[in-house]
Design a protein that fits this description.
This protein has 2 domains: about 150 residues, Nucleotidyltransferase, domain 5, CATH 3.30.420.10; about 50 residues, Arc Repressor Mutant, subunit A. The chain is built from 9 helices and 4 strands. The strands form 2 sheets. The protein has a two-stranded antiparallel ribbon with strand order 1-2. Strands 3-4 form a two-stranded parallel sheet. α4 packs across α5.
Length: about 200
């Protein structure tokens, strides 16, 4: 998982619009790579955090009432604490926006920062779109590294057939690259157990 934050001057936000910045999911990979370089030149500061599968599993499978949303809040707080903006606009992963916003604020060094927390902020705010492009570009670089090391893993999304095939054939061989709290992994493990029980 990759999470990014970028700090911009208010007067530079229009430049993002002129570049054609939009939610990273709506752009082709080639366009994202092109925009990524330009966004970095406009940003005052930026930071991308990679959260490895092991850290996600430890959080999600722990008994500390942590989940993926709260883990994301911790990483978002890390970004805000480093970038030190006057105002932070956050794409909220939780269905309970007010609870997420309150949880996030408690993790911030500056408790008085203006927080705008919304669903689909990566669609509605150019600065969040720009950050989503930075995160996506770093994610794609990592996927390419994994492909060179392990073979064709596909894009790494659960709906993709190549990724599903790679998972079924390589979960036991390369357990370190998978999120074991990921539903497709859990389903695959359950299938294997059921097959073994069926042998009796």
């Amino acid at each position: 998982m990759f999470i990014a934050g970028a700090l911009f001057k208010e007067e530079d936000i229009d430049k993002l619009k002129e570049l054609g910045v939009k939610d990273s999911k709506l752009l082709l990979h080639k366009k994202r790579v092109e925009l990524c370089k330009k966004i970095k030149k406009i940003a005052v500061k930026y930071k991308v955090i990679e959260v490895k599968p092991k850290e996600i599993d430890e959080a999600v499978l722990s008994e500390d009432h942590m989940n993926l949303n709260w883990l994301e809040a911790h990483k978002t707080a890390d970004l805000i604490n480093v970038l030190k903006p006057d105002k932070a606009i956050i794409d909220c992963p939780s269905p309970n926006i007010n609870k997420y916003k309150g949880y996030l604020r408690e993790l911030l060094k500056n408790k008085d920062i203006e927080l705008i927390v919304e669903h689909k902020a990566d669609v509605n705010f150019l600065v969040v779109s720009a950050s989503s492009i930075l995160a996506k570009c770093d994610r794609e670089k990592e996927v390419e590294k994994l492909k060179k090391k392990y073979g064709d893993i596909g894009p790494g999304y659960p709906s993709n057939e190549i990724t599903q095939k790679f998972l079924k054939e390589n979960l036991e061989k390369y357990p370190e690259i998978f999120r074991h709290s990921w539903m497709p992994v859990k389903e695959h493990k359950t299938e294997k157990i059921q097959k073994k029980l069926g042998d009796f």
